[in-house]
From TrEMBL:
It comes from Candidatus Eisenbergiella stercorigallinarum. It comes from the Bacteria. The keyword Coiled coil applies. The keyword Coiled coil applies. This is DUF3795 domain-containing protein. Keywords: Coiled coil. Residues 124-151 form a coiled coil.
């Protein structure tokens, strides 16, 4: 928006964490005041002396913030007022330092755990979870990598029972390259860690607003694969 310029690329004028937004990750938005599209709250800033944040305005919180922290499709609305309050308490510099750390964790989750459909979930986690819990989540995921062992996953002739394409996918992925994954055990460990990570994020963020539908329950012995 013309004449709408800001100093902080990490936190938006209205309290959204730009650095953790999927729109910025995808390259569709430069951030609030850094090439962003038309915004009614940005226009409001120009009309009220161009404060850096809404919380610096004499009229804050105004009618634009009524019900803003209630549940809707844009989940990160929940913490807009809390983010602005936290930035006031910590100061922009310390607040931004924490956002950079959150972004580092987010980048790692996307590089090592994302199958192409988890960007929104991981962005929500980076936005909504407390820093201590976010660090704990990543640490537990790393520990699980070493705790899963394979007992028996072969046919009577000793051939691995899995699709070669899955093994190729794992080996070529950022996670597979980083940890040198090349075995069937590595694949199962990776899938198990990803599943546990996603379930924990759902429990932490969506809580009772989400329903997890279990896939078909079976044992490995009940499956029959044809190796081609």
């Amino acid at each position: 928006m013309k004449h709408f310029e800001r100093k902080n690329p990490c936190l938006s004028f209205c309290g959204l964490n730009c650095l953790l937004c999927p729109m910025q990750l995808s390259g569709h938005c430069g951030g609030c005041g850094f090439g962003s599209q038309s915004c009614p709250i940005a226009r409001c800033s120009l009309e009220h002396g161009k404060p850096e944040y809404c919380s610096e305005c004499e009229e804050y919180p105004c009618g634009k913030y009524d019900h803003i922290d209630e549940w809707d499709s844009f989940v990160t609305h929940q913490k807009q007022k809390a983010n602005l309050k936290k930035c006031q308490r910590m100061g922009p510099e310390r607040y931004n330092e924490e956002q950079v750390k959150r972004r580092e964790i987010l980048d790692r989750l996307l590089a090592e755990y994302n199958d192409g459909r988890r960007k929104t979930l991981f962005c929500l986690a980076a936005n909504l979870l407390e820093m201590e819990k976010l660090n704990s989540l990543l640490e537990e995921a790393e520990e699980q990598m070493h705790s899963f062992s394979l007992k028996e996953r072969a046919d009577s002739e000793g051939n691995p029972l899995w699709y070669p394409l899955m093994m190729q996918y794992l080996a070529a992925s950022p996670y597979g390259k980083k940890y040198g994954c090349s075995t069937f055990e590595d694949l199962l460990s990776c899938l198990k860690r990803r599943q546990e990570l996603e379930l924990r994020l759902i429990r932490e963020i969506l809580k009772d607003r989400a329903v997890v539908l279990p896939a078909k329950r079976y044992t490995m012995e009940e499956l029959e694969f044809s190796i081609r």
